[in-house]
Amino acid sequence: xxxxxxxxxxxxxxxxxxxxxxxxxxxxxxxxxxxxxxxxxxxxxxxxxxxxxxxxxxxxxxxxxxxxxxxxxxxxxxxxxxxxxxxxxxxxxxxxxxxxxxxxxxxxxxxxxxxxxxxxxxxxxxxxxxxxxxxxxxxxxxxxxxxxxxxxxxxxxxxxxxxxxxxxxxxxxxxxxxxxxxxxxxxxxxxxxxxxxxxxxxxxxxxxxxxxxxxxxxxxxxxxxxxxxxxxxxxxxxxxxxxxxxxxxxxxxxxxxxxxxxxxxxxxxxxxxxxxxxxxxxxxxxxxxxxxxxxxxxxxxxxxxxxxxxxxxxxxxxxxxxxxxxxxx
Length: 329
Description:
The protein is mainly α. Among the domains are: 74 residues; 147 residues, no CATH class. The protein is built from 12 helices and no strands. The longest helix is centred in the first third of the chain and has 48 residues. About 13% of the residues have low confidence.
């Protein structure tokens, strides 16, 4: 059957390749997207080779230490059997102590990772209001505080109400109220106590170096105490990691650039006009210590703040205000 001749406008004709070859077009677009994603991914080969370098150097150091100890023990045996056996026993004790330290550090890192996992999971569950996820979080936090006698009543209350028909966010709030709010009160007292000590010592110390050393040691001590309070119990490596996370959290939340707000707190309470220069520095150092403590609470806490609230700088300033008045008088 022949078609009749027709006329048409060339401007109205559109060529759409995706309509003619949809599969080929989608495959080409997927290949292009994957190529772009591969191109923009950061190269991590440098980190891999840096890790290989550190591992190789550590192995060589272990070999060198082992060969040195072997030569030392052999030389002591050649000199005297008693000295050789004493060196062997001391080496065995050193190896045992090293194994215990490694196990404790690994356990501390595992506890910190567990706390971080519970916190991150709780944030997701609270946002999605997932009841099954909240029940799993209640089991995890019960296992975290199982050896804490001061949490026995709260854990028993949560076990009794775990099967109730409660939304996921409310279940997390229930766990926070019965387990963490008493710990939050202790954490507030720790932060206030550290802020008062820093304010008092830096106000009367004669040297800036003493101020710096005392403030640094007090901040590190506060972070460790808060981690112990919330169940982290970090080792040395875990403590350094926790300190780094606290400083990172402080930077992300704008705590490092909080100088203007701290000055406003002081001026708002009418303290700046009555204080000497040294006492003003002490109050500022105390407030900065409290700010680090608040960031450490948010990092060490296994659950997000739902029913509770973190300490505020205004509360710390209210606690430092009587101290400032006494010193001014």
